[in-house]
Amino acid sequence: MQREPAFISIFDTTLRDGEQSPGCSMQPREKLRLALQLAALKVDVIEAGFPVASLDDFAAVQMVARELRGPVVTALCRTLPEDIDRAWEAVREAQRPRLHTFIATSDIHMQYKLKKGRDEVLVMAREAVRRAKDHTDDVEFSAEDATRSDPDFLCEIVAAVLEEGATVINIPDTVGYTVPSEYAELLRNLRSRVPALDQAVLSVHCHNDLGLAVANSLAAIEAGARQVECTINGIGERAGNASLEELVMALRVRRDLLAFETRIHTPELYRTSQMLANITGVGVQPNKAIVGKNAFAHEAGIHQHGVMASPMTYEIMTPESVGAKTTSLVLGKHSGRHALDQRFRELGFDLTSEALTRAYLLFTRLADQKKEIFDQDLVALINDGLTDVPDTFQLRAVQATAGTHVLATALVILFDGEKEITETASGDGPVNAVFEAINRITGFSGELLDYRLASVTGGADALGEVFLRVRFPEGTFSGKAASTDIVGSSAQAYLNAVNKVIHRGKLASDPLLQS
Ligand code: KIV
Ligand code: ZN
Which of 100, 105, 457, 475 is the most exposed place for a label (fewest CB within 10 A)? Predict the structure, then answer.
């Protein structure tokens, strides 16, 4: 007899644990954009941030809570009363709010980090859940570093927080230390020793330090976990978290062995992955399972031959099932607005008429410079050109000269509204000279922390995408831009960061962000 598949709740923490990974920080409006996409992907829970950590984190959680419909929205907090109240303040307007409180339970963490004994930690956990329950019914408790905790103490603390009314119990493998069989055993043991656990949702949260996060999560599901915490592209602290797309597709493709199902609308996976990569500027490794550029590419002649005869020879899932398109060449100089609209729809972007007009303008400019326009070019254009940070300063023209034994100089012309402003500067190289000229015009002066240049597509006329991070006295901002001219895209990316600083200043008085 066939078993009814059990339902697995997908808890996405890209906006919280994911954002904690180097280079992945996001502005509140970028988080909102990604959260809306996660809702389209049909995740069950979105962890939107850690409100006490910063004003931006608070603003992002509040914005997501106010705007999102569908998924549960949760905010992370330590067990401290002020953390819990602050998290509640940020998340309380959500359609389905949840508070997620955590404390470390391993001796290593309690001794060196918390400097507290077991009794004190137990009391803090109990009181935190009790306080959170005063705010909302849906309360998740995480025993940080559970896999290196004493199992007896873990049972004791889980039983205690269940008594206080915790509705979800999360057993994280915080340092990515466990292996599948051990993790499954830990969970089975916990379930048999704490019978009340069956009244709550058992959750897991795996880090990828040994590359086992997805395998550990799958083993946990087989041992009774019914919520898995994961991130898009597997981003997260250190080596990252379990990757959402890998987990979901493993469950889908191996349904014959794993009788579980999720609500995830898998054709949105590729688009979500691309959106995250474009927001953060942290690209997806080409051989990344499910969403990497090579995940459905067949190089060896014998493989190509097999796939042509039947895709089943070398493909265990179709590219369409995860929303990856196989066609590469799309549009050229003579393509019209309608064709562009059609292609964007195929790529999963439903543009408003205004956004399409702007995209078309950028597209025609690109088509003048480049013979063939690929899907990645279009995605880069849309992410570069259509973000909701207003272009307070706009690039009109840039010219730079450089060479061996000559001083690099640049001339930059910007629009400030209707006004055209021209400046020249010299620097350590043409890009540095351009940035200096922009500083002089805008009055902002940033320190470049990170500068990355990648070609988005192949060929001599490929789009060069620049991603950079700049520290201004007002904070650290990223900027990105794509163009066939790398000096131009560097100028545009730097300007993008400057415009964010200006926008952030204006956001501070945005009524949406006021509590
Ligand atoms: O890795 C971890 O333990 C966490 C908890 C806060 C859930 O991220
Ligand atoms: Zn974590």
Answer: 475
